[in-house]
Amino acid sequence: MQLALKNVTKTYPNGVKALDHIDLTIEPGMFGLLGPNGAGKSTLMRTIATLQKPDEGELHLGDINILKQKMELRKVLGYLPQQFGVYPKMSAEKLLHYFADLKGIGNKMEKKKIVDYALEVTNLTDVKDKHVAGYSGGMKQRFGIAQLLLNNPKLIIVDEPTAGLDPAERHRFLNVLREIGTNNIVILSTHIVDDVKELCNDMAILNGGKILSKMNPVNAVEDL
Ligand code: ADP
Ligand code: ADP
Hints:
Distance between the termini: 30 Å
Bound molecules: adenosine-5'-diphosphate
Number of strands: 10
Shape: globular
Order of helices and strands: EEEHEEHEHHHEHEHEEH
Structural class: alpha/beta
Strand content: 25-35%
Strand order of the largest sheet: 6-7-8-3-9-10
Largest sheet: 6 strands, mixed
């Protein structure tokens, strides 16, 4: 499966051209979208996630025409927005069971299996009985990923996930992404060069709504 964007353009009502004829092809693996604040990263991520519409352009994920088949896209999408959620005083495990119920994963065995897997991959098994409201920023980010994994997504989008994390938490978080990036398309949107350098096998640089270059992260990072 491949994500293909063609000529994606968005101008906000205030005249800001946030996306300027974006052409981009993304293969399974870890893809880094690198760019400074205001580059258009969030606009692009929200557009791929069907949360906003471009003025022009086409987006396809495999057979799915994203602009015409919103629901099909959403079934295979895991999107972690920049500032993620408010959390109730409920343990991580209970909350994940609750979300699994909402998704209609009815079978008890299956539910336990997928919740245990999500906790395991995100390294939260040891703290599964603690309230998510009391988690650190990094633990909350990892919980956000655990929640996405209940859907078994094929396309995962994370927007500036390491902002504000201390080095140890940042490392743990990147390891979680590495784990889930092997079979899926994972797009990491960030202004932190090292996130991309450590993790991604492909990348693009976005600035002023334009793709400046699409290259191998190792070469790119030497040029920055
Ligand atoms: P990034 O995620 O890279 O920081 P954004 O996509 O949030 O970039 O923003 C790109 C540009 O569009 C910025 O100049 C921003 O101020 C502007 N922008 C973003 N959202 C809106 C909006 N809803 N209305 C008007 N301008 C916006
Ligand atoms: P990001 O860092 O992801 O670009 P921002 O903090 O810039 O996020 O934006 C947060 C929210 O404010 C978003 O919903 C964005 O669309 C909106 N926004 C950003 N810039 C503008 C702007 N110049 N005018 C109106 N809304 C904006």
